[in-house]
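Fold these two proteins, one after the other.
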Amino acid sequence: MAGQRKSYDIKGTSQYSRMQDYSSYQPSALGTFSISEDGDFINCNKAAIPTLLDYKLPLNLDEGYNGTEGKDKARETTFPQWEKGLKWIHGSKEGYGSVSSVDIIASRGILKDIGYTNHNQYNNPWKFEACKFKGKVYLRKVDEEEDENEWCIRNSYWGKKFEEYLIQQETGTKATYRMLKGKIGKKTVLLSAEVDAISSDGKYMEIKTCFANKIGVKVPQAWWQSHLGKVETLYYGLKTRQGMVYDKPTEITMAVALTKYVTKNRANEMIGFTGDVLDWLYGALPDKDETWILEYTGGRQIFLRSTGEKFLPNWYLQFIEGRKEEELVKQVEALTLSHPVN
């Protein structure tokens, strides 16, 4: 029923540090898919993951920013429509076989924001949509235009420009994702995680930019994001206030990031908090096709409220209503899903 409201009370960080050891999260990589430049789903393998390019310093991250085109590029997202993840689940052999033991289906970015709530010094708000259907919780980002100032937009553009300088996407591909499955708290989570690049020796890398005096603030969140996505190396371009990178990017292994910037106690707090919130959410949601808003606005509570609207697209509901597996796979492969299916 629309208007129903529930809340989760945030505990002290020390309580979360005892709930789960960060090292117990060891997700399995199940498969890979890409999004084309036109927004189409491409089921693929590890060969599609971007590789590092040769580049020449200095790098001007502000190049091309002026004008509408540059600002539009800063605002665009590479996150797939959430239906694309569902298509991988039920449109590939690996995906279809992975669902029976899964409790939560989400993107890495959602779990990153939830897990960092207690450590975000700015109390940045977040909001997601949630639904539990047939014993599985689905989480997706709310499709809203963010009210960002000019400086935030410019920095977002610089990050995308840095990636352009450093990585080589496969022709026709906009972004590539890995599907991972692991245990957080008491729940088994299936998540999609964008892969920035893979090194020549096969290590997964997270590509970031940062001001030199902010590295200690930025690395903990990047470590948490990378830990969720089974990434091995953080690759940082240290930028000036004018958007210039003069020095070779800094490589920080996950082990160094943990020891120097995060600490094991803090890492345990982040995964413990995420697990506790997911456990609460799983129990709080009714098992029906209904959209609920999961929201943090600052302070010591997380809120959950019903909109009364449907959550799952009709094609997905039809898909899981008892048809034979071979028929379901053929049905999904026939869909383009460039737009939500009504």
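Now the second one:
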Amino acid sequence: MMIMVCKATMFGWCYSDGDPTKKGQMEKDREENKLEELPSLYHYLSYQYFLSTTIIGPAHSYKDFIDFMNMRGDFAKIPSPWKRFGELVLQTLFFIGVTLFVLPRLPYRHVLDKDFAERSLFFKMAYINATSIAIRCRYYLGFKLAQANITLAGISYVKPKGEEEKDSWERIISSKARYELSINVREKVDYWNRSVQLWLKHYVYLRFATEEEMKKSAKRATQANHFTFIMSALWHGLYPGYYLAFIYWGFFNETCRKFFKIRHKFNAISHPIFYPMKWFVVNLFYNYGAIPFFLLDLRESLKYMQHTVFLGPLVILFIYFLSHQIPLFLSLIHI
């Protein structure tokens, strides 16, 4: 159902973009995926119930689907996918192993135990990072399996544009495990559940406000950011934990955007030697919001936050509401 929602809204917006009056007024992505004619009900249902993506995704545009079914464009001659398929199967087996043997040793519900509450703050921070990574391996299992599925079908194929380029199978991507190593929040958002992130960007975020509007108005950009995170929570379901998580991530993302604009002020810690420290801190505050997402229940989520002295929300909100003063503060101390 979640993937069908993505497909249905993508289809609707792409058909809306096919309006002749909008010609030449849209970004490249919208131009490429627009539908100038309404397909038949048979073709639409075929798109929605396409076996390779209907159950666990990833989501994709109607244009990619119909080009694939008619074997045109990049799909006119699809090479053998078996090598890439084998790589993805091996990655899936790895994540199955982590899910079976590592995840049970790092139960996320341990954050509710009295023993956890009595531990040091550093232990709590380390455990939040460790259990969040272990849980995500369960999701990577599904993502890689879905990626293997569409690779074997051929719909993820991208034809090389030049002689130096090689065949690619990343037209449609479920997720990238390099998410775990990144310390760039924008990259982390892009790498996780990639097809859904693109759906949120092109069919929620950029439909709430255009890039031009957001460049002119920081307030409009902030509204679009929070609206997108709320819509993502609604897309996941109605459990309170989803809303705690996505509201927290919305403020976290907005705070990081403000820091990104003044990143040149922090060149002193750009050396690779500081990478482990930055990785730990960035992932801690990102993973902090993941626990309510897993717990789902409101009381349990608040109990977890109480056990961690509300570290994540307090720090993020403090920085968020002071962020407008950060450039002035840095200039006063000559950083």
